[in-house]
Amino acid sequence: MIVARGFTCNVIVMENRKFARGHFLEARIRAGTVLVLLVMAIITTVTSILFLPDFLSRSTRESPSITVENVYSPVTSLDQLDNGTSWAPMESYALSPSLESELAGDDVHGNLYAPDIFVENGLYMMWYGAQGRDGHDAIHLATSFDGFHWKKYGMVIETGQNNHVNDPSVVKVNGTYYMYYTVAPVDEIDEIWVATSLDGFHWDIHGKVIGQSITGWDSLKIGRPSVLFMENEFKLWFDGMEKDPVDPTKPKQGTGRHVGYATSVDGFIWEKWLGNPIFNYSGAIDVEYIDGRYVVVEESGGGVLWRVGNNETSFDTHPRSLFPKQGTSFDQFGHVTPFILLEGGAWVATYTGAATWSTWNRNRISTWYPILNVTASMDGSAITPRWAASATRLKWSLERNNANSQVTITFVRGMTLVDQVSMDFPMGESRWIFLPASGTLVAL
């Protein structure tokens, strides 16, 4: 009986060991399965991270857009502005406030405007006005090798004892830079000063060269000069306002800003034209000579205006719209102190103070390029805003909630429809190029 019981015990022990080994093997199999699944999950995740973005960038991750290449159209003839050339801005500002002397108000706002650019040997030099934390304006300098990416150098003409120093206009004559600019010794009673430089960085200030008249349309203030040197003569346009006879520190009721003209042989002694003003209710202009005519750009709350002159003092009575504001926060309140950039006799860009605030004291310097009149529409309605992704490329950003819409790109020259293409709503970037030889748009 004892042996039998011992045998029975051995059998039970052996069976228990087999049962334990079975559970152990089953547990190992289950653990292995979990490990395999975990490894597969890791591989799937890594693969998604490495390769999925390329797919997503063409579909769900990247916002849908349309781009059209080869649309740059520098203005060599003013007739182009009535015959197929329009304007588009870079979505990023050329210059935004960052220096202490630019941050009027606070770190967010600031105020930059009144750009004037001189190009020589591939170097762009931009003098511009900026308002500092102390509330006073001074003239600054930035340089660039492409006209869009700029390096700031800070103030080159400081406020000094004056209230306001701004609105530079520069010409180079016989190796010397001449800068004409607005100075308000007190309040906003402006007058025009001159400074000279051999390098554009360091300036000698010579003081006032054109002041207010004793009476008449420019008796209160005179400023915002635009200067050219042609035919061995300095030619300068400016704006002015008439003083009130009761309070000579205020403008006369019912009057506005008007534009006058003056000339000088040496850049220091000036003679105002006797027939001033040459046109009315305008100011903060830039004047350039293109295609045998003078062209003026002017600031406005709706965008930038332009007019043409057959000579220095005979201009269109009324300006026309060069381009409207985008209407977004980019330039919600219009454009101030525009400037025409010429290179090789061609109008290659327009720089402005994009007004982000109703009081025109939170401006940013923007860049607008002349382009072919290419537009995009969705189900018959224009797609806005339109941006310049570069000088040669247009871009429209689209909203996914319009995925069932039909999109059309149109090229018009003057009043003539040249080419038009339609497509289904793009889920990623839809790229096109303009072929000037055939005047057609071709998908890339």
Explain the overall architecture.
- It is a single chain.
- 13% of the residues lie in helices and 46% in strands.
- It folds into three domains: 1-62; 65-70 and 374-443, no CATH class; 85-369, Tachylectin-2, Chain A (5 Propeller).
- The protein has 444 residues and is mainly β.
- The longest helix has 57 residues, at 2-58.
- The strands form seven sheets. It has a five-stranded mixed beta sheet with strand order 25-26-1-29-30, with no helix packed on it. Strands 11, 12, 13, 14 and 15 form a five-stranded antiparallel beta sheet that branches. A four-stranded antiparallel beta sheet has the order 2-22-21-20, with no helix packed on it.
- The termini are far apart.
What's the quick description here?
This protein has 1 helix and 30 strands. The chain has one helix at residues 2-58, and strands at 65-69, 85-89, 112-120, 123-131, 137-144, 150-157, 164-173, 176-184, 191-197, 204-210, 221-230, 233-241, 258-264, 270-272, 279-280, 286-290, 293-300, 303-309, 320-324, 335-343, 346-355, 363-372, 374-378, 381-382, 387-390, 393-397, 406-413, 416-424, 429-435, 440-443. The protein has a 5-stranded mixed beta sheet with strand order 25-26-1-29-30, with no helix packed on it. Strands 11, 12, 13, 14 and 15 form a 5-stranded antiparallel beta sheet that branches.
Please count the beta strands (DSSP E, at least 2 residues each): 30
Count of alpha/pi helices: 1
Radius of gyration: 33 Å
Q: What's the overall average pLDDT, rounded?
A: 88
Query: How far from one another are the termini?
Result: 96 Å
The unreliable regions are: 1-27, 46-60
Largest sheet: 5 strands, mixed
Q: What is the H level of CATH, i.e. the homologous superfamily of the largest domain?
A: Glycosyl hydrolase domain, family 43
What fraction of the residues are assigned to beta strands by DSSP?
over 45%
- CATH class of the largest domain equals Mainly Beta
Write out the strand line-up for the largest beta sheet, numbering strands in chain order: 25-26-1-29-30
Domain tally: 3
User: Can you tell me the overall shape?
Assistant: globular
CATH topology description of the largest domain: Tachylectin-2, Chain A
Share in helix: 10-25%
Structural class: mainly beta
CATH architecture of the largest domain: 5 Propeller
